[in-house]
């Protein structure tokens, strides 16, 4: 079954909730980036957060970026998501060797640092929200971010469960937000329910779908599932885009690359796709730039 996300409201619209399954997304990321177990967990959690937050985007052209920088051995993670269920991402270090006797946690791997959320709406200045990491476990860091930067009481749960061989057994998460007009009684009720709810990975390992998880959380709270949509790991890189990037680096740089006499290989950070440009390819590109310059001079 492909990964999918459900959107819901509860308690007569006082609460909005999002739940997602991301096993295929995280397994795809693991395969393309050859991530070691703790990195698969860290990147998987951030990709899951990306899928959830992408679905909250109102503007169709908006692009969301989630960036974590830390002083731990992973160094950082970057994920982008759009409003159509496409998510992609990578870790700065993928093949982290865990030599500790107690397996390294995501928090150990990330260390202290910061979380940056960039919402690029295609306008001149993107919105940039920033908060320090409070635990490095990602879900708690996002909860803190929502409270501090957006002033929205939010509960975030993200989980990635691995098989013995390091492949992904289960992955998913939920985000629950209280609307500004939520009454005190409802806030307390929800807090109690969330305190009793098992971890995301436990629920998913017990075979619970995103809908079933929300039903369990919002039992007797008037849950209304409004939308179900497919989410996927998708990178929109192409030879065309890479060519444009090469044109942007300028003539002098291209001349140097041609003078090297070797073909140039460019790897996409997000999906590891390789793009190879021979010196002939680069020469053609340079010729095209010069031709265009001449035309504009006339
Ligand atoms: Zn790519």
Describe this structure in words.
- With 298 residues, the chain is α+β, with helices and mostly antiparallel strands.
- The chain has helices at 23-33, 37-54, 106-110, 139-149, 184-196, 200-205, 210-217, 239-248, 251-259, 279-297; strands spanning 4-10, 15-21, 63-70, 76-81, 86-91, 113-120, 127-132, 154-162, 168-178, 224-230, 232-233, 264-267, 274-277.
- The protein folds into 2 domains: 4-233, Hsp33 domain; 239-297, CBS domain Like (Alpha-Beta Complex).
- It has a 6-stranded mixed beta sheet, covered by helices on one side. Strands 8-9-2-1-10 form a 5-stranded antiparallel beta sheet, with helices on both faces.
- 37% of the residues lie in helices and 29% in strands.
- The structure holds zinc ion.
- Residues 235, 237, 268, 270-271, 273 line the site of zinc ion (ZN).
């Amino acid at each position: 079954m492909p990964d999918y996300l459900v959107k819901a409201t509860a308690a007569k619209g006082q609460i909005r909730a999002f739940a997602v399954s991301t096993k295929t997304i995280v397994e795809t990321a693991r395969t393309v980036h050859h991530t070691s177990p703790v990195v698969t967990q860290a990147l998987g959690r951030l990709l899951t957060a990306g899928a959830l937050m992408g679905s909250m985007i109102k503007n169709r052209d908006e692009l969301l970026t989630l960036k974590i920088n830390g002083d731990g051995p992973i160094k950082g993670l970057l994920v982008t998501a759009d409003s159509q269920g496409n998510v992609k991402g990578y870790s700065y270090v993928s093949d982290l060797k865990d030599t500790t006797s107690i397996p390294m946690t995501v928090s150990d791997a990330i260390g202290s640092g910061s979380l940056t959320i960039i919402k690029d709406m295609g306008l001149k200045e993107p919105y940039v929200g920033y908060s320090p990491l409070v635990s490095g476990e990602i879900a708690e860091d996002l909860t803190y971010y929502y409270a501090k930067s957006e002033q929205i009481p939010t509960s975030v749960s993200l989980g990635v469960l691995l098989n013995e061989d390091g492949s992904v057994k289960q992955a998913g998460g939920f985000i629950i937000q209280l609307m500004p007009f939520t009454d005190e009684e409802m806030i307390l009720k929800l807090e109690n329910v969330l305190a009793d709810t098992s971890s995301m990975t436990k629920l998913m390992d017990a075979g619970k779908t995103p809908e079933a998880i929300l039903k369990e959380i919002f039992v007797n709270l008037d849950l209304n599932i409004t939308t179900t949509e497919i989410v996927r790991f998708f990178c929109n890189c192409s030879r065309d885009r890479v060519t444009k990037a090469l044109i942007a680096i300028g003539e002098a740089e291209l001349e140097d690359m041609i003078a090297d006499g070797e073909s140039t290989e460019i790897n996409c950070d997000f999906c590891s796709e390789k793009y190879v440009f021979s010196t002939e390819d680069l020469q053609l590109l340079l010729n095209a730039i010069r031709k265009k310059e001449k035309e504009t001079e006339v």
